[in-house]
Amino acid sequence: MANHGYQSGRLNLPFVGISTFAKSPYQPDWNAIDADVAVLGAPFDFGTQWRAGARFGPRAVREASTLFSFGHSGAYDHEDDATYLDGVRIQDIGDADIVHTLTDKSHANIEAGVRAILQAGALPLVIGGDHSVNIPCVRAFDQDCADKGPIHVVQIDAHLDFVDERHGVTQGHGNPMRRAIEKDYVCGMTQLGIRNVSSTAKEGYDYARAQGSDILSVRQVRKLGTQGVLERIPAGRRYYLTIDIDAFCPSIAAGTGTPSHGGFLYYDVLEILQGLAQRGDIVGIDLVEVAPAYDPSESTQILAAQLLLNLLGFIFHARGSRAA
């Protein structure tokens, strides 16, 4: 029979099938995770102080990620002359259960998911949800850090998120970096993109710096350049990376609850992430505050998915280079 160039199996275009992250296998059993990366949705947005809607972020980012999942072996980058993600095993373990009005219960469920990922030896990638989901994510690292060493938190965000307490609120989306720095296994913090009016008062900035945090605005980052920023981050550390989508300019990321003009553009962040993956080992990631209802173009969730897939490629390529 003549060969007309057809391949066996399914073409499986982006709009076909179930929208797991990057069309990766779904693993609902958290005791059976077997992957290099495990993706957990954290659709919690009770911590917001203004516009809700980030509860739909995980679903939207997963849907957007199918755009980059054509079934090829890896992703070739002609600028770097490197094939990223080749052989990297990704599993989507679904969402943590969110119990409406119960922050402690919902956060505990997120924490349980991250702990299961770490116990399986995989890299946790958590898609929020508002930025308060970072609190249970970092909390889940206590035993991992006891075994492997502390983490340096790298935050990319428009807001400092260093509020201690306001009217009894300690677990909202303005609190996560304050809660993180309190952990004895967090050995430092770099906060990039912080700008303009903020939910954190001056005393929060003063306290953050007193605890050793390095705070840079978008304009300061651009003035220093990528290499200058990386040189301020301690080398050879284990990094926990938390990315708030409002770090980006709302001209490219309008779908968020608290947009802030003057933000990063795509390559501002991508080049820092590539350098960070080479400077040390990124051991945990969350990306938060995608609220898709505010961006009918769907550009925000596409940006998030594209950034995350490139980041995963950088991490495992750098790990392979170090092991070689």
Provide an overview of this structure.
- There is one protein chain.
- With about 325 residues, this protein is of the alpha/beta class.
- It has helices at about 55-65, 105-120, 135-140, 140-150, 175-180, 200-210, 220-230, 265-280, 300-324; strands spanning about 35-40, 75, 80-85, 90-95, 125-130, 150-155, 185-190, 215, 240-245, 280-290.
- The chain has a single domain (about 20-324), classed as Arginase, Chain A, CATH 3.40.800.10.
- Helix 1 (about 55-65) packs across helix 9 (about 300-324), helix 7 runs parallel beside helix 8 and helix 8 runs parallel beside helix 9 (about 300-324).
- The N and C termini lie far apart (about 45 Å).
- Strands 4-1-5-10-9-6-7-8 form an eight-stranded parallel sheet, sandwiched between helices.
- The model is unreliable at about 1-5 (pLDDT under 50).
- The chain is built from nine helices and ten strands.
- It is about 35% helix and about 15% strand.
